[in-house]
Amino acid sequence: MKRLVSILLSLIMVFSFAACGATSDATATTTAPSGSSTRYKDIMGDVSTFKQEKKVVIFQNFVNKNGTFLNGEKGPAPANMKICGEDVKAYAIANAVAMFLNAPEGEVALINKEGAVEKTISAEDFKNAYIGTAADGTGVIKAGSVEMKNFKYAVAADKEAICFVEASETIVMADLLKAIGAKSDATKYRFVATDKFYLETDAAAAATSEIRGTLSGAVNAALSIELASGKINDILYVDIID
Predict the structure, then answer these.
(1) What is the dihedral of CA 46, 48, 74, 144, to 10 degrees?
(2) 139-155 pLDDT, tens per residue?
């Protein structure tokens, strides 16, 4: 009889430990670290309802994806035109400009891939401009009577901009901000994808984060943060938040 009781007590202890182990594992699963992108996507807000901030819009994802989710319209259809003596498929950027916090005024600077201001255009011509990709993979822009090769950035007076990213090109955010004259010490930087997924960084992390072009034509970002491993695909724009 004593032996039977001893066996029963042993079995009870074994099952008790097993139950405790199961509870511990379940707790670990439901309290996943903040680096879990699945959990983050479940709790993040709808970025299209956020207060809008100054933007750097990524040209490729604006035209490749349903880039204008903020106003419910699809990206523009290409137009065949000749720019700088070359036949290209170019895209109207009016809806991309409409995503800016402020309507451009005065002059807009056109910056080449070397980081130099090559031409200036009026804000009106900027809103009606077309951007395309040349045969060598670099950007071209036509705005009014102005045409330019090796296009990289169009920058409004308040430092909102459109950025052209070449296939397989990597742009470090510190270099981008310097090129367009934007704040490198803003309160935070919000990187937003075409599907409304977003990640935010402080100024220090933003400086070493990267915008990366791909051979497929899409543009992604690699941020210097742990959340979601810092990865964000199909980046539509970067909010610069004071």
Answers:
(1) -150
(2) 999 999 999 999 999 99
Match 């005065």 to its residue by tokens.
106
Which residue has tokens 């419910």? 72
- CA 157 – CA 106 distance, rounded (Å): 7
Side-by-side strand order, sheet with 170-172? 170-172, 210-213, 219-222, 231-232
Token reading at 219: 């543009």
Regions of the chain with pLDDT less than 70: 1-38, 65-75
Contacts of 20 (CB under 8 A, 6+ apart): none
Q: Tokens 């009106």 correspond to what residue?
A: 124
Distance between CA atoms of residues 156 and 240, nearest Å: 14
Query: SS3 for 117?
Result: strand
92 within 8 A of 130, measured Cβ to Cβ: yes
Residue where the block lists tokens 């938040």 = 241
Contact present, 113 and 122 (Cβ < 8 Å): no
